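@here heads up, posting the sequence + SMILES for the 2-acetamido-2-deoxy-beta-D-glucopyranose run so it's all in one place. Ping me if the SMILES looks off, I pulled it from an old spreadsheet.
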Amino acid sequence: MKVYGVVAAFWLSLASATILQNGQVRPNDYPSTAISAISSYNSSWHTYSPGSPELSYKGRWDHKYISWWSAPGLKFGFQADQVAISFGKYTSDGVLVAYRLGGQDWMLTNVTANSTHLFVTPSTTGYNLTTPTNVTQTLELRVTNWAYGVQIQCVHISGGAAKLVKIPDYTRTMELIGDSLSAGQYATLEGISSYSWGLLYGLGNVEFSITAYPGICLHEGRCYSNLHGQTAQWLKIPDTSGRALDIYGSDLADIPNWDFAAHPAADITVINIGTNDNNTANNVTATGYYNSYIQLINEIHTRWPQSQIIVISLWSGFSQVGNTWQQGAGFLDEIQNVVKYFNNGSLNGRGECSSCFVYYFNTTGILEHSDIGPLYHPTDVGHVKLASHLMQYIKLTFGWILEQTGPEVQHDTLYWNDEADY
Ligand SMILES: *[C@@H]1O[C@H](CO)[C@@H](O)[C@H](O)[C@H]1NC(C)=O
Ligand SMILES: *[C@@H]1O[C@H](CO)[C@@H](O)[C@H](O)[C@H]1NC(C)=O
Ligand SMILES: *[C@@H]1O[C@H](CO)[C@@H](O)[C@H](O)[C@H]1NC(C)=O
Ligand SMILES: *[C@@H]1O[C@H](CO)[C@@H](O)[C@H](O)[C@H]1NC(C)=O
Ligand SMILES: *[C@@H]1O[C@H](CO)[C@@H](O)[C@H](O)[C@H]1NC(C)=O
Ligand SMILES: *[C@@H]1O[C@H](CO)[C@@H](O)[C@H](O)[C@H]1NC(C)=O
Ligand SMILES: *[C@@H]1O[C@H](CO)[C@@H](O)[C@H](O)[C@H]1NC(C)=O
Ligand SMILES: *[C@@H]1O[C@H](CO)[C@@H](O)[C@H](O)[C@H]1NC(C)=O
Ligand SMILES: *[C@@H]1O[C@H](CO)[C@@H](O)[C@H](O)[C@H]1NC(C)=O
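bot reply: prediction finished. Complex structure tokens:
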């Protein structure tokens, strides 16, 4: 019986295209939030610079306040009636952002370079649901597409006490390192439809970073349009996108390092990488992959000695076998050997280990062939299944409580049958 590994993970051209979801054209006429520049708008506004301590940046951002990788965000508290944000020149043209007030459902709007957008007014849903009216409200904004980003130029507020308030970070932290499968490529809302988002946001009360980019390999070298593999790129602030090349160039020495010491260590690191290494389009050998995996885990462990590391097995798509289907498995032995390398000699007779920090997450049996879309990536349902299993795995393995107990995580998944009578 032979299972043909189906290729997953890509880079893509960002040419505009019609996107179908469940056979229907996906609407993309999101309400505009653009307003004229605050300076000509109204003098009663208070403007905060992007480095203001009240502003919390989520994921990887650089010293120019430019966002990188998948689903980076900005979050802050405010006591005001209106909140606007100005975006700098390094903001991608028309990038779709999700934003929300408090625990309201996500809203979507396109933003662009050199523009100011009004995100909160008294008519924003949820604005009046808190009492007294002076209570601190929270605005959170997330970039939905991995290849695009925003640059925060300043935040403006007016009305009420007109002040920003620092929202303390959660104490739980996680990191997810991956490729297109983890960046959410081809999912309905991309980064915020991915299993990574479903897992990390869905656990609740977790600060997290999704260092995933389509087409990237683990092994150092070029894979598709990515000039570097994750062993090198994960140590950097930016991802491997064209906009990163424009700003920082291709020489690793010129690309700024992520300042690990300046940010909290991840309690748990999840890695799902190798589907691109396991593709004949790229020239990565099994030995090269194995050695690079050990290298990456050592890099993580050096910087975050307490981090528990979960290694996800590669499902690599599904193939027809006879008159049914069977899941593939990229680098099946190599990944298990990496886990054994770190746990060797430490396992007791029941396969348990108290000093081990590398865990194998077996994906076999979670997805079925219909959970993979025509472009080889999980459907939204496939992403939700993966996220749910990982959440439960983390709960059972590390005793983490599921703390997101109400606010929406995945957006646009609310469809249902209300036909009661047949
Ligand atoms: C300026 O904006 C504030 C808050 O929206 C509003 O209360 C005030 O009336 C505005 N002033 C002018 C001159 O438009
Ligand atoms: C944004 O403004 C800068 C000047 O500050 C200009 O160089 C750049 O072309 C503008 N970008 C867009 C997309 O208008
Ligand atoms: C808004 O973003 C979506 C998703 O990227 C895109 O399809 C749409 O064309 C954008 N709209 C505008 C006006 O930029
Ligand atoms: C909230 O209250 C203000 C003032 O009464 C009103 O103008 C606004 O429409 C209300 N917002 C909503 C969403 O009901
Ligand atoms: C809101 O805050 C302002 C300024 O601090 C204060 O004057 C006002 O009484 C407060 N209103 C309420 C309802 O607490
Ligand atoms: C892989 O190796 C082949 C043969 O050496 C070469 O032609 C090809 O360009 C290489 N591909 C990449 C992505 O490096
Ligand atoms: C991908 O992984 C499978 C399973 O370990 C292996 O049989 C195959 O040779 C690998 N292919 C490439 C191109 O690395
Ligand atoms: C585990 O350790 C033994 C003894 O040191 C060694 O022979 C073996 O190769 C190791 N296995 C792995 C998977 O590293
Ligand atoms: C992964 O799960 C499948 C299906 O339950 C099982 O057959 C396989 O042995 C598991 N692999 C490992 C390494 O535990």
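MO: Residues 380-398 form the longest helix (19 residues).
MO: One more: The chain has two domains: 32-165, 170-398.
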